[in-house]
Amino acid sequence: MRKVSGVSPSTSRSSPHEAVTVNSSTRRATPVGFVDSSLCSTALWNGSVSVELLFPYLERMDDGGFGAIDLMSPELASCIVRRQENPLHVLRLGCARLQKTPANVWISSRCLLGSVPSTQDLLELGIETLATCGVRRITCLDALNDVAAIERIAVICRAAGMEVSAALIYLRSPFHDVRYYAQRNEFRACIFRMSTVFARPSEGNDFGFVTHYVESIKNRQPIRLPAGVDPVRDILYVDDFSRACRTFMNRSVQFGLYNLGGGRLNAVSLRGIIGKVSKMIEIEPVIEEDPRIPAPALPGD
């Protein structure tokens, strides 16, 4: 990645593949590198495209200013094997054409380029083999986001003199939820689906809408409300929330999912809150109704 310094936003002449971000307070330019992944697409290799056809482009891409160029991944290695070719041979040919840009390989923290988990010594041998092929950069992923497994790969890569980066994967799955990861890593977990929590103002804590109304009335500041509606909310005092957390911690339950709130007895409308606070501190509130303000959405909307 090329270093960029002393460049103002209006006069920046960065590479087409290099963005420059500027800190507004210091006006200091910071380079942002890009990694090309076009040749790592299995869609290319599933057809009749060959190494001889694709790899000549690497010499031109080498002058593009990329931070790295992806040459291999577990999916692509499997695709190349199905073509009855050797992925390591393909890597050697590709790396030989990159003189300026690091060749990057995506690997699994447990299986490298394969689909079968490997022992520590095989992982070390595999990464050393990638290095001898000319690979200068490794991007490691773990399907379970096991950071410890990724860290082990990072140690091996650094020992081999290679750059290393990690990829943490976010997914939405009915199986890989909080309960799954809690059980897998042997820790207790709890999810609270909470209503609005309120408390007295304290340093470092932003106001919730209840405290906002109290402070606005005390300081005689206008309170803007949606016109023609009076939404009702189920509010929860912070001490009650604290007791719920303590109750779960003191139990032996491994996993819990709870709807946590004050209940119907503590439900109150926005104007009801303002009216009660106003009566308690004997200050008339200043209310401004604004039809442009939408009514607050209910939980789950």
Radius of gyration: 29 Å
Oligomeric state, counting identical vs distinct chains: single chain
Uncertain stretches: 1-24
Query: Going across the major beta sheet, what is the strand order?
Result: 3-4-5-6-7
Mean pLDDT: 80
CATH class of the largest domain: Alpha Beta
List keywords for this structure.
301 residues, elongated, 2 domains, 33% helix, 11 helices, disordered N terminus, three-stranded mixed sheet, Rossmann fold
Please describe what this structure looks like:
The chain is of the alpha/beta class and about 300 residues long. The chain folds into 2 domains: about 35-165, Aldolase class I (TIM Barrel, Alpha-Beta Barrel), CATH 3.20.20; about 180-290, NAD(P)-binding Rossmann-like Domain (Rossmann fold, 3-Layer(aba) Sandwich). About 35% of the residues lie in helices and about 20% in strands. The chain has 11 helices and 14 strands. It has helices at about 40-45, 50-55, 55-60, 75-80, 85-95, 120-130, 145-160, 180-185, 210-220, 240-250, 270-280; strands at about 20-25, 30, 35, 70, 105-110, 135-140, 165, 190-195, 195-200, 220-225, 230-235, 255-260, 265-270, 285-290. The strands form 5 sheets. A 5-stranded parallel beta sheet has the order 3-4-5-6-7. α9 (about 210-220) runs parallel beside α11. The longest helix is centred in the middle third of the chain and has 13 residues, at about 120-130. The chain is elongated and about 85 Å long. Residues about 1-25 have low confidence and may be disordered.
